[in-house]
Every structure is written in C-alpha cells, then in structure tokens.
C-alpha cells in the first residue's frame, strides 16, 4: 500500500505551503523526491499516481515530470546507488578508471544492479564537484577525491551497513 | 592579497551559524536598506556598482531589475538560480555550503528592492545536504526577525523558500527554471516575453544567480561606487572562480577582476601552477560552454597583450582567438590530456541535457557525440571534422534557448584550435588508442613564473 506516514504527510503539506493558493502543482518535484525516498528508491506508476492524488493533478502531469529529470529512478535500484560523474573535469582526473574499477569490483556495468540487490552503478553528468574530482554521490552526500582505496572502503562500509540493518 | 567581499569571512569558525554571522557584521545591509533606503535607492546603488550577473551571461544586474514590470496588484517574484550545473562550475555550492547567511541576507535586500514577498531559491536536487543548510539559515533569519511579516517594522513582508530541482542542467536556463518551479518539465520558453514581464506564474520575475545576489550585500554596505572601484573597466568588483582540472590547488577563489590569467594559474595564492610538474596545454576559462583556448592564446591575446581575468579581456579576439568569462568555471588541461576525448565528454553532456524541443539541438548534439566518439576510438574519417563543423554551425543560433549554442561552441573551438589533434587521431588510429597527442605546437614550453 502506497501511503505516506503522518509525519511525511505533514512534510508534504509544509512543501505545498511554499507556493501560492492553487499552485500546489509546483510541489511535484520535492514531493517526488520524498516519495522516491520513502517507497523503495524508485518511482512506480502506483507511486506517481499517489503523488498526483496528493497534489490534485492528473497522473500524466506527474509522469511528464518524472520522466524528464535524471534523479528519478523509473526502475528498481540497489540499496546503495553509486552515481559517478563522468563529465570533462572528472574525466581529466581519472573518472574513467574509477568507473571501470567499481564495475569490476561489483561485477556490474553502468546502469546495472548487483545480483544481491545491494549496489547500482550509475554514471551521471557534472555534479558541481569538479575541483574535488573524481567523485560520486551516495545517498545524501558526495564522496570526493575518489581513489581505488576509497572505493574499496565505501563498498565495505555499505556492506557493513546493510548487514547491520538486516 | 586582493580584497575579498564575499569570502572574506568564510574561514571564521561557525560562520555558518546565525550568531557568528551576525556578530561578524551580518545582516547590516538589511538594516541599512530597510531603515534608510527606499527600494529605488537600493536598485540605484546596484546600478552604480556595475555588478554583472554571475550566472554566465554577465548582464548588468541593476538594469535587469529596472526592467521589471510593475502592474498594480500583481505580485512580483525574485528567484535565485542555484541550479549550478555547468561543468567546471562549483562556486555557488561553496558559498551556500559555507556561508549560507550571505545568500539569505542578499536575498532579503534584493527582495526588498524588487518588491518580492515570496522569494525562491531553485537549487539543484543533488545538493541535498545544502538544502538542509539553507533551510536552517532561513529559519534562523526568520526567528531573528529578518524574514516574515513587517520586517524591522517597515511594513515589508518576505518569505524565502528552497525549491529542489531533480537533475537537469537545462533548468539552470531561467525560463526552463521557471517552468520547473511551476511543476512542469524543464522546457525553455520562447523569449520575449522576458521573465521581467511574464515570469513565474505569468508574474513579473527577476532571476539572479547565487553569487550575484550575494554581491548585493557588500554593495549596500559599502556603496556601489566603492564596489565599482575594484576591478577594471566593465568588470567591476570581485568574481568567484572555481578552478579544476590539472592544477595543483583546485578550489574556489575570489579574485579582483584585475589580475592576469597567468597570475591566476601560476601564483601560489591561486591555482599554484600545473599539477605533477606538467605543462599547460589548454584551458576552458568560463565553464564548459565557452570556447577552449590553447595555452599561448590563453595567456596572451592575439594582439600580444597579457590576458586578464576580466569579462573584456577573456573575450578579446572574439571566438577567433578569445573565449568568455561565463560562469567562472576554470578548467585546465595539462600536456597529457586529449582534447578530442575531453570534447567528446562535453558533447555527451549536452546531448544528455538537451530538453529535446528543438530539432537542431536534440539531433545535432547526438550526432556530434557519436562522431567525436568515433574519432576518439580511432574510427574517424577526415570528412568527419568538416561534418562536425557543419553540424555545430547549424545548431548555433537556430534554437529556442542558448543550450544549443553552448553545445556548439566547445566543438567549434576545439576544431578551430586543435584541428591537428583531430587529424592525428584519424591518421594514426592505433597510436591514438595508446597515447595522447601531447603538447604538440599549441604552446611554447612555459616556464613557471613567480608572481
Ligand atoms: C543551458 C543554460 C544553463 C544555465 N545554467 C545556469 C546555472 O546553473 N546557474 C545560473 O545562475 N545561471 C545559469 N544560466 C543562466 C540563466 O539563464 C540566467 O541568465 C541567470 O540565472 C541570470 O542570473 P544573473 O543575471 O545573476 O547571472 C544558464 C543558462 C543556460 C542557457
Ligand atoms: S536549444 Fe536544446 S535545450 Fe534549449 S530549448 Fe532547444 S532543444 Fe531544449
């Protein structure tokens, strides 16, 4: 059942309050972020329909937006998503090798999820971290100045966290 | 050391918190503006400062504000552009992350000048932790009476809201940003009408970059005339430059717009020279959209003058031999880098970010990406170079928004200045797989200068 908790519903109301009366459609991006976070890291059609009903807009208005922006996942993803930047400035600092290394280590290619469902590797375009390249986003934060050793440590960290949460 | 107006206090411990920021003189500009100036006087001060938009286009800020339509009974909006997605650019992030109250302070003064009672910060969605930092700063400002109803007893009401984007470079373009803020796809609008007349929800709207808004604080505190004394010509004040690529000390630097490019790259106060003892090959001085320059043209204009870090000097020589200040994203390539590969990653970026409304941009960016990848992979033909040239010519100027131009220019400049490197990839496909072309004849071997 797709349903926000009372606390999250309050958060939705707070966001809707950012916009003038009748302009609640504006809340679609932030509410989709919230939904993706709450409902398994991706947006199913049911989730998008739920967001549409909350904002009193047509489902198609939500689909239009959800398919436009790269941060929304329209397919299930792993528990930990490595979003590695591959644009020019990161490339100058070795992002190609980092992407290759992560792929080999996890046995997946960009766009794929590991068999255990833990990791997804995604290549992304410039994240405004060019001076701290190479980098990736993991959850809420950026991991910068990546090296192979750092990647190893991050993967271990994720595995440990996953065990703790099980 | 040059004067710093935005980042002078950034290293003070806990400057992110309201108490420290206030103790260090924060929010004085709000007191001054609201207590002793009317909105027109604030705008006049900004005009006098000569401040130009820091988001990329460099449009005079005071003039932009003066274009704002003011029909009776219609709200006006200020929207702060914190979408920062131009490759090479990470200055707004730095400012918001480390001294968030400076942006909030600037937004309150600017909202007062414009008459915006609801002001939005449109921030790129990936900056999740910065959204929390900004919301915290807004709450603190509000708790201390700088936001909300009847600020300082003036009768002026203002709220600031943070609106998160979701991963689309195009939403940095101001009309796409407004579409997105209205909850739609980020498709740019046809201009005119300009946002100053019909912007957010069809109301008159000013869109300004984070750094532009922050610069309003010192302008009001010290006066527009004093701000204009810093810098050179029409490049007044200071500019944040985010430097990256193959330099010793990447990072965000606040410079007076009166230093030379050479000083910026080689002096220890700034980039500290090229990393790993390599030599400078090329540089994109203003974010990925502006033309790349080989080292010799970067440091000296075609006329032989020393090139300066100003809007005018970086553009000296037009697209034949110059570039642009753009967003201040300074990308440095050393002698080991491949211009073809770098240009390919940028072409891929623009293909990925095209909103798809205009055929030349939607199709052309994809073709350029494919052709560049072929050349990079040793599968190119000599005619591909002219084909690339032809495609970029057909994109430029033929699209709704400037993303088309932004995709065309990097390819054009790479071919203009580095044609021999493209040709070498095509005539030596095996070599091109194994090694890079090197410095070739692009630059004199440059000595490291002490500045
Ligand atoms: C494709 C594209 C992307 C842009 N991205 C940004 C951006 O991330 N941040 C920004 O401030 N301006 C960006 N701009 C420029 C804005 O359209 C607009 O000119 C700017 O926000 C105005 O603010 P300013 O006058 O203070 O510079 C972009 C423009 C284009 C065409
Ligand atoms: S130029 Fe490209 S990004 Fe801009 S409106 Fe046209 S298709 Fe969209």
Map the helices and strands:
The complex is a heterodimer of chains A (166) and B (451).
Chain A: H1 6-16, H2 28-38, H3 45-55, H4 59-66, E1 80-85, H5 88-92, H6 95-106, E2 119-124, E3 136-138, E4 141-143, H7 148-165
Parallel strand pairs in A: 1-2
Antiparallel strand pairs in A: 1-3, 3-4
Helix pairs in contact in A: 2-3, 3-4
Chain B: H1 18-23, H2 28-36, H3 39-49, H4 61-66, E1 76-82, H5 91-98, H6 100-114, E2 116-123, H7 128-143, E3 159-164, H8 174-181, E4 205-209, H9 210-222, H10 224-229, E5 231-232, E6 235-236, E7 238-245, E8 251-256, H11 261-266, E9 280-284, E10 293-294, H12 295-299, H13 311-314, H14 318-321, E11 329-334, H15 339-353, H16 359-376, H17 382-395, H18 403-427, H19 429-434
Parallel strand pairs in B: 1-2, 1-4, 2-3, 7-11
Antiparallel strand pairs in B: 5-6, 7-8, 9-10, 9-11
Helix pairs in contact in B: 2-6, 2-9, 3-6, 5-6, 6-9, 15-16, 15-18, 16-17, 16-18, 17-18
The complex binds flavin mononucleotide (FMN) and iron/sulfur cluster.
**CATH first level of the largest domain in chain B:** Alpha Beta
CATH-wise, what's the superfamily of the largest domain in chain A?
Glutaredoxin
Sheet/helix structural class of chain B: alpha/beta
Percent of residues of chain A in beta strands? 5-15%
Largest interface, Cβ cutoff 8 Å? A-B, 42 and 57 residues
Query: What is the domain tally of chain A?
Result: 2
Total helices of chain A: the number is 7
CATH superfamily annotation of the largest domain in chain B: NADH-ubiquinone oxidoreductase 51kDa subunit
Oligomeric organization of the protein chains: heterodimer
Stretches of chain B where pLDDT is under 50 for at least 5 consecutive residues are 444-451
Number of strands of chain B: 11
Strand order of the largest sheet of chain A: 2-1-3-4
As for the CATH topology of the largest domain in chain B, it is Rossmann fold
Mean pLDDT of chain A: 97
Rg over C-alpha atoms of chain A, rounded to the nearest angstrom: 18 Å
Q: Termini distance of chain B?
A: 12 Å
The biggest sheet of chain B, with number of strands, parallel, antiparallel or mixed sense and barrel status, is: 5 strands, mixed
CATH architecture designation of the largest domain in chain B:
3-Layer(aba) Sandwich
Overall domain count of chain B: 3
Helix content of chain B: 40-55%
């Amino acid at each position: 059942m797709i349903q926000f908790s009372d606390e999250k519903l309050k958060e939705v109301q707070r966001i809707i309050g950012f916009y003038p009366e009748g302009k609640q459609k504006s809340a679609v991006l932030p509410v989709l972020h919230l939904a993706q976070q709450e409902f398994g890291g991706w947006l199913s059609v049911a989730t998008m329909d739920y967001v549409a009903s909350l904002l009193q807009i047509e489902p198609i208005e939500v689909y239009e937006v959800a398919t436009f922006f790269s941060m929304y996942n329209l397919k299930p993803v792993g528990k930990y998503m490595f979003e590695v930047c591959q644009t020019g400035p990161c490339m100058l600092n070795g992002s190609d090798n980092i992407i290759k290394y992560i792929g080999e280590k996890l046995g997946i290619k960009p766009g794929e999820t590991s068999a255990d469902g833990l990791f997804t590797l995604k290549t992304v375009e410039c994240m405004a971290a060019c001076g701290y390249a190479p980098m990736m986003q993991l959850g809420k934060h950026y991991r910068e100045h990546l090296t192979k050793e750092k990647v190893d440590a991050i993967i271990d960290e994720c595995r440990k966290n996953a065990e703790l949460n099980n | 050391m040059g004067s710093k107006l935005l980042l002078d206090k950034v290293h003070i411990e806990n400057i992110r918190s309201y108490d420290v920021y206030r103790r260090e003189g924060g929010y004085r500009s709000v007191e001054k503006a609201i207590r002793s100036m009317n909105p027109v006087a604030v705008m006049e001060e900004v005009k006098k400062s000569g401040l130009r938009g820091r988001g990329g286009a460099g449009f005079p800020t005071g003039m932009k504000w003066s274009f704002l339509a003011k029909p009776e009974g219609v709200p006006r909006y200020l929207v702060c552009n914190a979408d920062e997605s131009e490759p090479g650019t990470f200055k707004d992030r730095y400012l918001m992350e480390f001294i968030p109250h400076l942006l909030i302070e600037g937004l309150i003064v600017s909202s007062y000048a414009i008459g915006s009672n609801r002001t939005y910060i449109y921030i790129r969605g990936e900056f999740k932790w910065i959204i929390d930092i900004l919301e915290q700063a807004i709450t603190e400002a509000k708790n201390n009476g700088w936001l909300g109803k009847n600020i300082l007893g003036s009768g002026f009401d203002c709220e600031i809201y943070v609106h998160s984007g979701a991963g689309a470079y195009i939403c940095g373009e101001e009309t796409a940003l407004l579409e997105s803020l209205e909850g739609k796809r980020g498709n740019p609008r046809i201009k005119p009408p300009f946002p100053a007349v019909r912007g957010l929800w069809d109301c008159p709207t000013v869109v300004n970059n984070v750094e532009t808004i922050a610069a309003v604080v010192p302008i009001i505190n010290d006066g527009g005339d004093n701000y204009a004394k810093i810098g050179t010509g029409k490049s007044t004040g200071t500019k944040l430059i985010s430097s990256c690529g193959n330099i010793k000390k990447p990072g965000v630097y606040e410079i007076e717009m009166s230093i030379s490019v050479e000083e910026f790259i080689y002096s220890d106060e700034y980039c500290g020279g090229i990393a790993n003892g390599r030599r400078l090959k090329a540089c994109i001085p203003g974010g990925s959209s502006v033309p790349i320059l080989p080292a010799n043209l970067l440091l000296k204009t075609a006329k032989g003058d020393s090139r300066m870090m100003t809007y005018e000097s970086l553009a000296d020589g037009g697209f034949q031999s110059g570039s642009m200040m753009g967003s201040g994203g300074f990308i440095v390539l050393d002698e080991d880098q491949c211009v073809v590969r770098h240009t390919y990653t940028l072409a891929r970026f623009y293909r990925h970010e095209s909103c798809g409304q205009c055929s030349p941009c939607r199709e052309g960016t994809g073709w350029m990406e494919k052709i560049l990848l072929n050349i990079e992979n040793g599968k190119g033909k000599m005619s591909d170079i002219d084909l690339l040239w032809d495609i970029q010519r057909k994109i430029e100027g033929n699209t709704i928004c400037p993303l088309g131009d932004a995709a065309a220019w990097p390819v054009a400049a790479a071919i203009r200045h580095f044609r021999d490197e493209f040709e070498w990839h095509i005539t030596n496909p095996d070599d091109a797989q194994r090694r890079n072309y090197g410095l070739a004849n692009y630059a004199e071997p440059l000595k490291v200068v002490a500045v």
